[in-house]
Amino acid sequence: MSINEKLLRTRFVVDPGNPHITVNTSTCEGCVDEPCLVVCPVQCYQKEKNKLIFSWENCVECGSCRIVCPEGAITWNYPRGGYGVCFRFG
Known about the structure:
This protein is α+β, with helices and mostly antiparallel strands. It has one domain (3-87): 2-Layer Sandwich (Alpha-Beta Plaits), CATH 3.30.70. Helix content is 21%, strand content 24%. It contains 4 helices and 6 strands. The strands form 3 sheets. The protein has a two-stranded antiparallel sheet. Strands 2-5 form a two-stranded antiparallel sheet. A two-stranded antiparallel ribbon has the order 3-4. 11% of the residues are buried. The mean pLDDT is 86.
């Protein structure tokens, strides 16, 4: 099964106005390699006119971006109970 097929089995319950992950985009301006653009499986990170755009609503809570960020610009917390990702196995 491909990663895209697995992601299609994932359900998101977005907590409007309460992002579980925040990115200090001003800190990102000094980043040369920009590993978050590559490592995010659902492409929450995009580059638009040399500015980083982050969409937390689609995050699958893998934590990869936080691990690879060389600038420490990413703050990640678990979503409130009942919100976030619900993985379906099988």
